[in-house]
Amino acid sequence: SLLSTLTASVSEPRNPGTGAYGYVVYDSSGKVAEGNDVVGDNVSNNFAEYSALVAALNELLHRGITKDVTVKSDSKLLVYQMNGKWKRKKGGYLEKYKEASDLAKKFERLTFAWIPREENSEADLLSRVAYERYRRAKGLPVRFSH
Fold first, then answer.
1. What is the tens place of the pLDDT at every residue in 10-55?
2. In CATH, what number is assigned to the domain containing residue 71?
């Protein structure tokens, strides 16, 4: 079975703010893929979380990996919504939620599990790298909220 861990955050003290994400895909032998990006300057952390999920699911589909996948995220909102335990609410992330839900239908046995941020350090670091690179390229201050 394959694991994909992802994290995304609005890395500034303000939410909404500059949103970045990172994800890492592992199989039993180790790391298979990773990715990170910035999704915008005025986005919510929920939009960034779902952008991370969309990117990770697209990576898995691109590699033909569609069975027995567990996505681990430090976002309770994402995990519980994708597991069907929480209803989606109004918000700027709904477009990305719908995109992620459509992609999820292409998988057999796709599950979601919550993990604390401390257990998501590799994906968290990738998120911070994307954020810093983007802010420095624009000549903007780099401020972390966590």
1. 455 567 888 899 999 888 888 888 999 999 988 888 899 999 999 9
2. 3.30.420.10
pLDDT digits (tens, 9 = 90+) for 62-113: 999 899 999 999 899 999 999 988 777 777 789 999 999 999 999 999 999 9
* Residue 27 CB coordination number (10 Å): 13
Angle at 19 between CA 32 and CA 100, to 5 degrees: 55
Give the residue numbers spanning the domain of 104: 2-137
Looking at the domain assignment, is residue 100 inside a domain?
yes
pTM (predicted TM-score): 0.88
Domain count for the chain: 1
44, 92 Cβ separation under 8 angstroms: yes
- Whether the CB-CB separation of 18 and 40 falls below 8 Å is answered with yes
Are 146 and 9 within 8 A, CB to CB? yes
Residue 15 DSSP code:
S
Q: Does a structural domain hold residue 143?
A: no
